[in-house]
């Protein structure tokens, strides 16, 4: 008996399947999804055994369950599938040549922004222990997030941000999206992180980290409990940043985005 012949196209097929499985694993990591997958596999294994021993009634019941398995998987794993697709969409920068063909690339720098009003607002809100969540938009389109909130379209100012996040203000819940020197929207709903994080992380920190996982945005979170300032970007969050260092840290992340963009275009 000879070996099964393996062609080059088979290697490509194996590589693509392995990449898909790895991406699915990353999307499910830190959630209950792996346990559900084990449960589905056990049901399928039992169904095979039942068919082998010709247990007609039990086999029919399990067969009906498995026949709707694909639809059930789509419903059960909807958050994980959505996160997986968002991660894929985040890689848009790797296909800048396609964006240039369709004239989708941004025409001006996303980093042309005055950070001082944002930094001062974060410092003052931290001192007063007012919670805040500020998203500084970069290249990725945040239209879905912006549409989930209330459209504002106003010039960024310290007073505006502090008024938005004032505890009794109607827009204080959710996040504020800033594009350039404009506040685009407030009360925006952000995706929560899929990572395992310490229990000390509140909803703002989880949302900040989740937003950084699905976009290249720079997210600032001000804790309502401690007044500490955190900065999330590229699936990493740094906590307790000194207000005096906040602008420097944001500019560093902007330069990081610029370098990555240049590398992808070269």
Describe the fold and architecture.
- The chain has 266 residues and is α+β, with helices and mostly antiparallel strands.
- The protein folds into two domains: 94 residues, no CATH class; 150 residues, DNA integrity scanning protein, DisA, N-terminal domain (YojJ-like (1), CATH 3.40.1700.
- The protein is built from eleven helices and seven strands.
- It has a seven-stranded mixed sheet, sandwiched between helices.
- Strand 3 and strand 4 form a beta hairpin.
- Helix 2 packs antiparallel against helix 3 and helix 7 packs across helix 11.
Record the SSE blueprint.
Layout: H1 8-28, H2 33-52, H3 56-67, H4 69-76, H5 78-90, H6 96-101, H7 116-127, E1 132-136, H8 143-147, E2 150-155, H9 158-164, E3 175-179, E4 182-188, H10 203-214, E5 218-222, E6 229-233, E7 236-238, H11 243-265
Parallel strand pairs: 1-3
Antiparallel strand pairs: 1-5, 2-4, 3-4, 5-6, 6-7
Helix pairs in contact: 1-5, 2-3, 7-9, 7-11
Report the biggest beta sheet as strand number plus sense, adding barrel if it closes.
Answer: 7 strands, mixed
Number of helices: 11
Order of helices and strands: HHHHHHHEHEHEEHEEEH
CATH architecture of the largest domain: 3-Layer(aba) Sandwich
Coarse shape: elongated
